[in-house]
Design brief:
The chain has 15 helices and 10 strands. By secondary structure, it is α/β, with parallel strands linked by helices.
């Protein structure tokens, strides 16, 4: 289509030149034809470069200077019998399914760095060593560099060192996994201002560089500084896939809404675990506690819209308010304001209006219709009814 339009444009110019040979000149400094239509006539300028660049020529994509891809497996609890840092079951061909996924990310992204994160407090040193050996073996079979995948312990993150209690197996697994990926994204961005950080669940189908950084995704990264997976749910996003680039206001929004707010909730949850031992506690009832536990595990997910709206406030695009208050959110009040279930807090905030007017920047990725997380949380919810 573009080639036909370019051909037609050149054809029209050629007709003008053919019928007005007495006064035709090409101005290389302006990339234009100056066509005189007779003595003293008006001069018509055909701006070829502007015309073609605006309508017909797609500029080359500008990829990030550096980028890293992060996958993660966090155990529910300590398992010294586990052969690798990820499950080694018959269903996973004794861990090979996970290794193959990492290898596919390496093959498609030779310029990127692939990282596998795990919780070193919940696996043995032997499992870590076996995982490293398995990955090196599978990668070299493909003729790739054995060092293409790096193994990282989530306990080495600064946040895990400062607040080890929220990484404890007492905290439900899906909250820990969601929180860990937010911590990794933020700390990786702080360590490298020029890098793009990508997180993907093992369920996400691996993508090569060109698919990962398509035009729409690059535009989102340039304007919004982050991208989430598109999903056909109420909020139209999923956090099983994320892309972030460095920006100070984004880091501030991530710190307040993804990190600090969820630390407040996690500490409250640990206090409630102790409270449920009391004879008069409402949490002593199994159905009540299970319902509360399921809601808690989705807290990190529901803080992404709050992060997005707070980012809009920091950029002067909107005002993030709660419970109909006119005053904008002030970080000084975070302990009082954010100590609520995130889904409830989001529903009472202006974030809902903001994301309806300015949808979350998302990307279509290939992943199962129902993830293992969704299946288990749904099953747990049904148990409470």
């Amino acid at each position: 289509m573009y080639q036909n339009k370019i051909t037609k444009t050149i054809f029209v110019i050629s007709l003008l030149v053919h019928h007005c040979p007495s006064s035709v000149a090409f101005d290389p400094s302006q990339w234009s034809w100056q066509i005189g239509l007779g003595a003293g006539a008006t001069v018509v300028s055909v701006a070829l470069l502007s015309l073609l660049s605006k309508n017909y020529i797609t500029p080359p994509l500008k990829y990030p200077k550096q980028y890293s891809i992060h996958l993660m497996w966090i155990n529910r609890s300590l398992n010294l019998e586990q052969a690798y840092v990820y499950p080694a079951t018959a269903e996973s061909s004794h861990g090979k399914k996970y290794a193959d996924t990492l290898v596919q990310w390496v093959k498609g992204n030779p310029e990127g760095t692939i990282n596998l994160w795990f919780d070193g407090a919940l696996v043995s040193n032997e499992a870590i060593k076996a995982t490293d050996e398995q990955l090196r073996c599978e990668i070299t079979k493909q003729g790739l560099l054995a060092s293409s995948v790096k193994l990282n312990n989530i306990r080495d993150c600064e946040q895990a060192k400062k607040t080890p209690e929220v990484f404890s197996s007492e905290i439900p697994i899906y909250w820990r996994a969601d929180f860990a990926r937010a911590v990794v994204m933020k700390e990786q961005l702080e360590q490298n201002n020029d890098a793009c950080c990508v997180y993907a669940d093992f369920d996400i189908e691996p993508m090569a560089k060109k698919e990962l950084f398509d035009g729409k995704s690059l535009d989102h990264l340039k304007k919004r500084k982050f991208v989430m997976a598109h999903e056909f749910n109420t909020l139209q996003f999923e956090n099983g896939f994320q892309m972030f680039v460095h920006e100070e206001t984004l880091l501030k929004a991530m710190q307040d809404m993804l990190i600090d707010a969820n630390l407040i909730r996690a500490r409250s949850f640990l206090e409630e675990m102790q409270e449920k031992k009391e004879p008069t506690s409402i949490f002593r009832h199994p159905h009540v506690w299970k319902r509360h536990e399921v809601a808690f595990q989705e807290n990190v997910f529901y803080t992404y819209p709050l992060m997005y709206a707070y980012l809009g406030q920091l950029r002067g695009l909107c005002t993030l308010t709660f419970s109909g208050k006119l005053e904008h959110y002030d970080p000084k009040d975070k302990n009082e304001v954010l100590d609520l279930d995130a889904q409830l807090l989001m529903g009472r905030s202006s974030a809902i209006d903001y994301i309806s007017r300015f949808p979350m920047p998302t990307k279509k990725v290939s992943f199962p219709v129902s993830t293992s997380k969704q299946q288990e949380l749904t099953k747990q919810s049904e148990f409470t009814q």
